[in-house]
């Protein structure tokens, strides 16, 4: 949330004005949604934690690979959501300005969607690859 403050300042300073003199609000929507979600998570953190873990658990019994797969999946969902939002935002801008839509203009959003899907759907394979690389990269100890 804090990392988006400079972007918000830039959006306000360089507020896009259309040819007819109207102000366009598209530049502020992304920042507003990030701030609203961030504040919601901060204000509702205890009730969210209570719903996720209803009882106090003294010992975590999950496996490390399962936790890593969940982390990769969460990162994948975040990238997927950001990519879809960017692609839809660019499509709305292209339709409202009646300009041509170039694939290179949509490429960053499409790349985020692809990477997000790959991380989400391939989390277990990525964890397996990670552990196999870690096993082969470890130096072997020589016994005397």
Features:
single chain; mainly alpha; 72% helix; flat
Walkthrough of the structure:
The chain is an all-alpha fold. It folds into 2 domains: about 1-60, no CATH class; about 60-144. It is about 70% helix and about 0% strand. The protein has helices spanning about 5-15, 25-45, 45-50, 65-95, 105-120, 125-135. The longest helix is centred in the middle third of the chain and has 34 residues, at about 65-95. The protein is flat. The mean pLDDT is about 75.
Number of domains: 2
> How many β-strand runs?
0
Over the alpha carbons, how many angstroms does the gyration radius reach? Answer: 22 Å
End-to-end distance: 55 Å
Overall spatial form: flat
User: Helix proportion of residues, in percent?
Assistant: over 70%
Order of helices and strands: HHHHHH
Number of helices: 6
Largest sheet: none
Structural class: mainly alpha
Mean pLDDT over all positions: 76
Low-confidence stretches: none
Strand content: under 5%
Oligomer classification: single chain
